[in-house]
Design goal:
Layout lengths: L14 E6 L3 H16 L4 H16 L1 E6 L6 E3 L11
Antiparallel strand pairs: 1-2, 2-3
Helix pairs in contact: 1-2
Bound molecules: zinc ion.
């Protein structure tokens, strides 16, 4: 269990939050557009990548630290320890 990050604005502990990274409407639009492209044979080449991009967008999560007191949010990155030179 990681220690909570302290908010730089108001010194309250921040909470871990994870939610969808992309707008679900946009992702749905890509999937529906891709299905239509495939159905009408206008573009297998266009439609399949559109569906894949849409599915990726639906699945992608965003990890944030959120301060409940002042609504500050910080994006969380996991850096590989190899890249730190250890
Ligand atoms: Zn705060």
């Amino acid at each position: 269990m990681a220690k909570p990050i302290i908010c730089t604005h108001c010194n309250s502990p921040m909470q871990e939050y994870s939610g969808p990274r992309y707008n679900r409407k946009v992702a749905g639009f890509f999937i529906i557009g891709g299905i239509f492209a495939v159905l009408f044979w206008v573009g297998m080449v266009l439609g399949i990548p559109l569906i894949l991009v849409g599915l990726y967008m639906l699945g992608a999560k965003r990890e944030l630290w959120v301060c409940k007191d002042c609504n500050t949010a910080v994006e969380r990155f996991n850096i590989d320890s190899e890249k730190l030179g250890k």
